[in-house]
Amino acid sequence: MQNSNSTGQATACPPLSLLPDCAERAWSRSAIALLQGDGRRSADTHLLKPLFPGLKGISIYLKDESTHPTGSLKHRLARSLFLYGICNGKIRQTTTLVEASSGSTAVSEAYFAKLLGLRFIAVMPHSTSRQKIEAIQSFGGVCHFVERAGDVYDEAIRIAEQTGGYYLDQFTNAERATDWRGNNNVADSIFRQMEGEEFPVPDWLVMSAGTGGTSATLGRFIRYKNLETRLCVVDVENSAFYEAWRTGDMQITASGSRIEGIGRPRVEPSFVPGVIDHMIRVPDAASIAAAHVLSERLFRQIGGSTGTNFFGLCWIAATMMREGRSGSIVSLICDSGQRYADTFYNANWLKQNRIDITPYRRMLDHFLDNGEFTLP
Ligand SMILES: *Cc1c(COP(=O)(O)O)cnc(C)c1O
């Protein structure tokens, strides 16, 4: 048997018994089985319903992503990024993995790298919390630091090239590695857990943005399921997202956020502005005050970005109440406050950074108890 190629030359059929060995596929099958096992052994995260006397007619729900084995919503993302890399043939038995991160993603990726026996290098800003650095190292990951938040990308690319490794690139791949139509992603899980509630279809979902991947998944899912739910994304000081959404200019840059995990110096490729119905930007003092207030009312500490989410949620709730509407609002607990004992929960750090949370604390406590929302 002979085939002709495009130049018309005859091509001999290869002789029998030259099929490649399948060691690499055997490894990728065992790697997928290990990732599936981690998922199978994990329960779904709680959807908390804290009660606030001031919020008449408005039900608040918080999806608690801090209870994943690696302590944040990034457990889902890291798992998806590993599956994406393996299924694209990029992550193999001897691949060194490299990531640019503000910390949480690197913690989760270090965990999965250890599970699969792969080398892992995290490129992070110097300011990353000590607790996250220790968690990465405890999973055998190597931490590599840069001075400015905006330097993590180029440094991660450089290290990946130098080591012949694979750059996981959460900021590009978050929106595409996640199966946004369902498959028990965070949106799918929220809507299933809401099914028996008084207002099962939330009026609003509220979320901050780091990669933008979670808001992309939430926004796509509510469109795909043809729901009336709207999506509000809450941005922070010194982040590029809000201006980009408002003006449509995706080249906008900023100096970089103090709220770890969210607010970025550039508009990340995983940020999908077209699925966002509304955006607000809040001061860091408001985010951190909201983290303190919510921590007290939940009797456990939550992280700074959860404070941002909660402040945005209160803003939406206040607007709904002013319009005389009732319904439900859902947001996320992204991680625990234990990771920020040296920063958001440290009075000296707040003073050094000239952040006075007292006015926002008073205002939020008054709102949650009496329903009156008066900005300081
Ligand atoms: C990543 C992260 C977020 C934002 O989630 P994205 O899906 O990346 O936009 C919020 N809080 C924390 C603690 C994070 O690590």
Describe the structure.
By secondary structure, this protein is an alpha/beta fold. It has 2 domains: 44-69 and 181-369, Rossmann fold; 75-174, Rossmann fold (3-Layer(aba) Sandwich). 41% of the residues lie in helices and 15% in strands. It contains 13 helices and 12 strands. The protein has helices spanning 23-40, 74-87, 104-116, 130-138, 152-163, 170-177, 186-193, 213-224, 241-247, 284-298, 304-322, 347-352, 358-370, and strands at residues 2-4, 10-12, 47-48, 58-64, 97-100, 120-125, 142-146, 166-167, 204-208, 230-236, 278-282, 327-333. The strands form 3 sheets. A 6-stranded mixed sheet has the order 3-4-12-9-10-11, with helices on both faces. The chain has a 4-stranded parallel sheet with strand order 7-6-5-8, with helices on both faces. A two-stranded antiparallel sheet has the order 1-2. α9 links the parallel β10 (230-236) and β11 (278-282). α1 (23-40) runs antiparallel to α2 and α10 packs across α13. The model has no long low-confidence stretch (mean pLDDT 95). Pyridoxal-5'-phosphate is lined by residues 72, 74, 104, 174, 208-215, 261-262, 303, 305, 334-335.
